[in-house]
Amino acid sequence: MKKRIKPILLALLALLVIIQFFQIDKTNPPHDTTKDFITIQNPPQEVATLLQDACYDCHSHLTEYPWYTNVQPLAWWIKDHINDGRRHLNFSTWADLNAKRKARKAEELVEMVSEEEMPLKSFTWTHPEARLTNLQRKKMVDWLKTVETKEKKAVTGLPALKPAEGVEE
Ligand code: HEC
Fold first, then answer.
1. What is the mean pLDDT of the chain?
2. Which end of the chain has fewer surrounding CB within 10 Å, N or C?
3. Does ligand 1 have an atom closer than 6 angstroms to the CB of 88?
4. Is the pLDDT of residue 167 over 80?
5. Cis preceding-peptide flag for 128 (omega within 30 of 0)
6. Ligand 1 close to Cβ of residue 127 (< 6 A)
7. Is there a cis peptide before residue 163, judged by omega within 30 degrees of 0?
8. pLDDT at 159
9. Cα(161) to centroid of ligand 1, in Å?
């Protein structure tokens, strides 16, 4: 038995060494401030900082890559989250969304943050600054709700009475 384990371990070790040569692409696409969510929506400073610390690494072109994103296969898994995060919601290109999509994303934002789905747990393990206290979460949600109301109003063109219903993708 022991005789077989050694070659297997060596093979695994060799594989681990080889995959280190397949680094992820860390070039951030251009970030146009004039299209940026924070620039456009202008949250209170505290909320802006929270968004940058807790969300922008996966949902914008301002991703910061920590040292362990040099280590495979961990980095592949992280890069996957970034690609997926940007695909679902990209704060760097907020201005490119049409009115309906802005309203839809604003609604998702309120939902994801209030239900504590975001930021992802795996992210807060290594990013203490992204661990939102209850108060911080509440401040973020309260502000996001004002964005939701505003964006839904922009879709219906009606005053705030009933804009919330029926706004789909
Ligand atoms: C570690 C990466 C990561 C971080 C940090 C992160 N997200 Fe996400 N987010 C994702 C991924 C991946 C998805 C898509 C898959 C899913 O829904 O779980 C997503 C989905 C979302 C969606 C759904 C978008 C849609 O329309 O489908 C919203 C809204 C969202 N995130 C908001 C936030 C907010 C707000 C923060 C900060 C408080 C945040 N996220 C932090 C990775 C991240």
1. 93
2. N
3. yes
4. no
5. no
6. no
7. no
8. 56
9. 29
Atom of ligand 1 at shortest range from CA of 57: 5
Distance CA 159, CA 152 (A): 10
Q: What are 54's two structure tokens?
A: 């807790």
Any atom of ligand 1 within 6 Å of the Cβ of 107? no
- Are 154 and 102 in contact by the 8 Å Cβ rule? The answer is yes
* pLDDT number for residue 156: 83
Reported as a single tens digit per residue, the pLDDT across 36-79 is 999 999 999 999 999 999 999 999 999 999 999 999 999 999 99
Question: Is the CB–ligand 1 distance for residue 53 below 6 Å?
Answer: no
For 78-135, write each residue's pLDDT tens digit: 999 999 999 999 999 999 999 999 999 999 999 999 999 999 999 999 999 999 999 9
Note the pTM of the prediction, 2 decimals.
Answer: 0.90
Å from CA of 117 to ligand 1 middle: 8
Please state the atom number of ligand 1 nearest to the C-alpha of residue 89.
Answer: 24
Per the CB < 8 A criterion, the answer to whether 127 and 54 are in contact is yes
Distances (CA, A) of 160 to 37, 124, 167: 22, 36, 13
Mutate to test the pocket of ligand 1, among 55, 63, 100 (most ligand atoms within 8 A of CB): 55
